[in-house]
């Protein structure tokens, strides 16, 4: 037998054997949640992934809740897991000190081991604080004009003069251009284009069985991640040299900001290592362009039939401004209805289906024991579509968020941005790019959907049918 084939078989068989041995010999606490761990290694992973791709993931989760209750055990991505649902479960996940973030092995291999997603305690606080430094309001005010410029160029190049466009790939490219420009100082050109292509492959294997074999999505993601990381290392070292020569400042980009941070002990030591900067830049790329592009795509999908209700406030903002004058922070504050539309879109179609924590000790929840080292899996849809929390949950109703949150909803019900100490650090950044983009599209165009069937699938993030093709018409031509 050839050595590569033998090694591949060992790579597959060894985890299975170890898993079976552990299950046969390990001491499990009594009173585990109901449910089954399923097949070794695979567990229920393929069933969940099939449901996500078939647009039945919420039903898949609800079926488990109906069968076992709000707490049940299963196995996802090679790890014993407990699914928890409801506001109390969300609060437990976001605030319990016995749980730490621990992404599936596939995510860790692709994004890195030193990212904000996986660190805990002092390391998490240190890196979150560093990212928050770049994303604080005083810094964000400086970026509104830059984002406005990127959106204007995007509209001129990819929307103007066309009768039809496909929204999802356009929004992904727009948010990618915004994030790479502001976070990394990467200008338009071949390098940015290549990085955009790599990140399409990075996303393919984020939620996959982490077996590194040829022709798998996981292998493609690993290779694309390696190329992206090499580029980010190069950008980091070039930015460091520019800072030393006085050719860049702390506000020039995210990497410049992170490189400028030093320990509080006056030693002058850098706060983050190169590995930490690269790992968290990878996370920022995923979080900063993928989730925002999904939000704006589904806003456009909804506004195809109801754009006139949100257009008035944008006309009001623009009436006293010259066409070539960029939007300001103060202009965005007037777009309250549009942001309510965004929040309701996030309630109905949350970009992140769910996420994981890992127990660092045996812990009790809902009358059951969750053993140390197990995953805890929470999802947004169970609370977002609970009629007891959000009346008529399938009805699109932005007025639910007139006070930026449904006044009748209990805490930890709306969890599109997570919650607790790990609530999305880039939430305000997402608000800015969403409002700026929707301002220019609503001001310049009318549109209608090309597809009669209005559905989407998750892979793992939601994607509308055929990428959401629409017919567009310039408002001045109507």
Automatic annotation (TrEMBL):
<dbReference type="InterPro" id="IPR036396">
    <property type="entry name" value="Cyt_P450_sf"/>
</dbReference>
<dbReference type="InterPro" id="IPR001128">
    <property type="entry name" value="Cyt_P450"/>
</dbReference>
<keyword id="KW-0479">Metal-binding</keyword>
<comment type="similarity">
    <text>Belongs to the cytochrome P450 family.</text>
</comment>
<dbReference type="GO" id="GO:0016705">
    <property type="term" value="F:oxidoreductase activity, acting on paired donors, with incorporation or reduction of molecular oxygen"/>
</dbReference>
<dbReference type="GO" id="GO:0020037">
    <property type="term" value="F:heme binding"/>
</dbReference>
<feature type="signal peptide">
    <location>
        <begin position="1"/>
        <end position="26"/>
    </location>
</feature>
<keyword id="KW-0408">Iron</keyword>
<dbReference type="GO" id="GO:0005506">
    <property type="term" value="F:iron ion binding"/>
</dbReference>
<keyword id="KW-0503">Monooxygenase</keyword>
<protein>
    <submittedName>
        <fullName>Uncharacterized protein</fullName>
    </submittedName>
</protein>
<feature type="binding site" description="axial binding residue">
    <location>
        <position position="424"/>
    </location>
    <ligand>
        <name>heme</name>
    </ligand>
</feature>
<keyword id="KW-0732">Signal</keyword>
<dbReference type="InterPro" id="IPR017972">
    <property type="entry name" value="Cyt_P450_CS"/>
</dbReference>
<keyword id="KW-0349">Heme</keyword>
<keyword id="KW-0560">Oxidoreductase</keyword>
<dbReference type="InterPro" id="IPR002401">
    <property type="entry name" value="Cyt_P450_E_grp-I"/>
</dbReference>
<dbReference type="GO" id="GO:0004497">
    <property type="term" value="F:monooxygenase activity"/>
</dbReference>
<dbReference type="Pfam" id="PF00067">
    <property type="entry name" value="p450"/>
</dbReference>
<dbReference type="GO" id="GO:0016125">
    <property type="term" value="P:sterol metabolic process"/>
</dbReference>
